[in-house]
Amino acid sequence: MSEFKKKIECILPGKQWEELYDTSHLPPKQSDVVIVGGGILGLSVAFWLKKLESRRGAIRVLVVEQDHTEHLAVVDAPLVDLRYNPSGCLLLASEKDAATLENNVKMQRQEGAKVCLISPEQLQNKFPWINTEGVALASYGMEDEGWFDAWSLLQGLRRKVQSMGVLLYQGEVTRFITSSGQMQTPSGEQVVLRRINEVHVKMDKSLEYQPVECAAVINAAGPWSGQVAELAGIGKGLPGTLQGTKLPVEPRKRYVHLWHCPQGPGLETPLVADISGVYFRREGLGSNYLGGYSPTEEEEPDPTNLEVDHDFFQNKVWPHLAQRVPSFKTLKVQRSWAGYYDYNTFDQNGVVGPHPLVVNMYFATGFSGHGLQHAPGIGRAVAEMVLDGQFNTIDMSPFLFTRFYLGEKLQAYNIL
Amino acid sequence: MSEPVTPDSSRKKRTLLQFLSDYFHDIHALREYLLRKQILKGNRKNRSFADIQEKYGPYVTGALFILKQGGAVKFQDKEWIRPNERGHFPTEFLEFRKVPVEAVDASGCAINYQGMSNLPVPLKELRFLSLQCCPNVDDWCLSRLYLLADSLQELSLAGCPQVSERGLACLHHLQNLRRLDISDLPAVSHPGLTQILVEEMLPHCEVLGTDWAQGLKLEPDQQPQNTPSPVSP
User: Which InterPro entries does the record associate with it (chain B) (predicted)?
Assistant: First the structure.
């Protein structure tokens, strides 16, 4: 009887009508834009696409996310609580980096950020728990700087984009069906331009897949963007040519440690980034602190799994912490976990915008750990590129893919 | 997506519009439009008064902003100026261009993060600020108070529903603060612990916080035999 009821429900207006079998769990057959990756960047692009569309319901957007452990239902909460801590960031610099820090602060102040430079004496007065040995200069954010809960931002954004009509599906993108054509550049060279016509989305734990016809594909797959780009044929060519330039984004494992220290820095502690590259911040009210350290190229942990190497904290992180904050000598690690950075091996900065040869694939990835803070801006930039064909608000042309072929680095410093 | 941010709107019966918006796209769009209008109205109230500042000077601008929101202002050596029930206030203060404002009572006003830029930036000699029961004052707003570090001596945040311990952490800039009222903040998760940490952070300041018995609930079998005064839950 329930089968019969299901069939009747299928026939009613507004539901998908499939004569042979029920396909409500599969993504739609057609979508204007397919976003590969439902993380913060992917959802941000979806949000801006729906916000900037010319009329309500103009663009159909589909977000495909490979891994989610909770259901996609919308929770009816009034406001997103971001748990924002406006405590600012304290960046310490030694003698040799002091000039760079000063230039950076000057540039940030020109753009309107409320950052100030502090000398070691002022630093000791303000934060008596810090050991200023080796510190020549520090920059401190007075206003609008701090940290927040990324997970609640992600959930809030997901809820919002769903209310705007974006479809979120869980699945893995396994194949792109492309068509190509020969074109001639103004200088007479022959280039092969490719268009993605269909995206094959494979369902979890089954061989079933749905081909989704689309007009544009956005690669926001984070650490796995390199693999997704290879599926579209990016990088399949002679090395040194534009066809042979791969997307240099690969997953890198990073550890985060949570420790408890009863006599540690007080409530006013900002996010401290030490000269050595170690960073930490307060977590909650109970004298817990969170921090980590980016390993050098030689010490890179194996990214095939998410196992935590506890010796890493003992040998690499703790000595620097204890040196900078003497009360951290008596800390006790409570928990550690690992996550992936979408690490750009070329210059550690993001890739935004279309690919020159695969004309309807747009990138929004490769930020090597800084994607979260840039996500709203990048989302808008990619949405403008898709809808208008150019960057309107901020010119992101230094972030285009072509810089990998031309070899122009846009180096990012101070990677935490 | 419901009506203005009230936590008990989910407990109230659903209104007719809410019911209809599940079935009709037009009603859905209408409710979105009403929500947007409400947000715009809040933004308008907190718009920047920079153009008035050029003409009348910083103190008068700040005072005008507060009075328009429904708060009260006290200039140095003058009486408190309050709007009456109709929202009208005496305009003699427009002459006080050089007189600094020393006290602002913005209790219950709809001041938010945008509007905060109209407060501390012009009013450099503010000594007393009351933001009691302001529904839109949250942690972001508190991070803007550092500009008053030299002058502010008394601050009251009692009853603000959106202020949490994270915003209280950025009050450490206000080293001249002598009295701080942080009682009855529902968004603070551990009021007793927060008060201790804030007292450690501001050693010269008297912190008025929660009643210490708050949060203590006696087990039924542990209740004393004769209770002269009941412990408040």
Answer: LRR_dom_sf
